[in-house]
Design a protein that fits this description.
9% strand; disordered N terminus; alpha/beta; two-stranded parallel ribbon
């Protein structure tokens, strides 16, 4: 994991233990919120970095409202089709904002305090937001 220190706030994880905790927490929320479809997309460089990938971590339920995005999907068309984006602090937050899509970040990041994304107060607040339609 690359950690970048910024003058705004550093991006160390404070609301979750690690990315596994974050991913499984979102998956648990997605399994309970069947009013929408949830698409989980791996980092574009996962294979290049090596090690455990998103597909290794996710055990998708049979409910059908959760899916892992294939790396073959067209990223531009995918972004256009979404109602909102959830990221920890990825550049997708910038891309989505530029495309007019609402973004929910999970914690402090290099752009989380700049006013163009929804930032929860803490872990509990973040998980509560996932229960509803935070993007509207």
């Amino acid at each position: 994991m690359l950690i970048i220190k910024t003058t705004i706030k550093n991006i160390y994880l404070s609301n979750f233990i690690d990315f596994f905790d974050w991913i499984t927490s979102i998956q648990t929320a997605a399994e309970k919120n069947t009013d929408c479809y949830w698409l989980f997309k791996a980092h574009p460089c996962d294979e290049w970095y090596g090690g455990v990938t998103l597909s290794d971590l996710l055990e998708l339920p049979s409910s059908g409202n959760i899916q892992l995005v294939s790396k073959e999907w067209d990223n531009r068309k995918l972004l256009e089709s979404l109602d909102g984006i959830i990221t920890y602090h990825g550049t997708v937050g910038l891309e989505a904002t530029c495309s007019g899509k609402p973004v929910l970040v999970s914690d402090h990041g290099w752009y989380s305090d700049l006013g163009f994304v929804k930032k929860p107060e803490n872990r509990r607040h973040f998980l509560n937001l996932l229960r509803g339609n935070w993007w509207s």
